[in-house]
Amino acid sequence: MIVIDADPAYTLPAAITLVIVEAADVAFALQADTVAQVTAQVPVTPLPLVPAFVDGLVGLGGGILPQIDLRRRLGLSPPFPADLSELLVMVATDGNYALRVDHVIALITIERDTIQVFDHHSG
């Protein structure tokens, strides 16, 4: 059984496709329709006066995107400087960004009958 956080009135699709990634030995699932691209790490231009989880700016797909480090954003142990990582170009309503993860594990599809909706706002 997979549990997702959503409004109880949310109508589940017949299936949800997920990108499974890893950061600091923890697996995370991201909806595949929010991932536009997966690529190897590219050079980062650091920025002053940004939160510690923002690595800086990266040039991807003809655009300049902020790069977010998933480990730092979630307060997990930082990667070693020599560790390889991958970037996911994430599509968001307030602007795209690059998400730095240790690596992509898999692309999976979960059927509706194996999904339970959990509403953290109720009760």
Alpha-beta classification: mainly beta
SS elements, strand count: 10
Number of helices: 1
Backbone CA Rg = 16 Å
Strand residue percentage: over 45%
Low-confidence stretches: none
| Shape summary | globular
Largest sheet: 5 strands, mixed
Widest sheet: strand order? 4-7-8-6-5
Q: What is the N-to-C order of secondary-structure elements (H for helix, E for strand)?
A: EEEEEEHEEEE
Oligomer: single chain
Q: Terminal Cα separation, in Å?
A: 22 Å
Helix content: under 10%
Average pLDDT across residues? Answer: 87
Notable traits:
10 strands; 3-stranded antiparallel sheet; globular; single chain; mainly beta; 123 residues
What do you see in this structure?
The structure is a single chain. The chain is mainly β and about 120 residues long. Helix content is about 5%, strand content about 50%. The chain has one helix and ten strands, in the order E-E-E-E-E-E-H-E-E-E-E. The chain has one helix at about 70-75, and strands at about 1-5, 15-25, 25-30, 35-40, 55-60, 65-70, 85-90, 95-100, 105-110, 115-120. It has a five-stranded mixed beta sheet with strand order 4-7-8-6-5. About 10% of the residues are buried. The mean pLDDT is about 85.
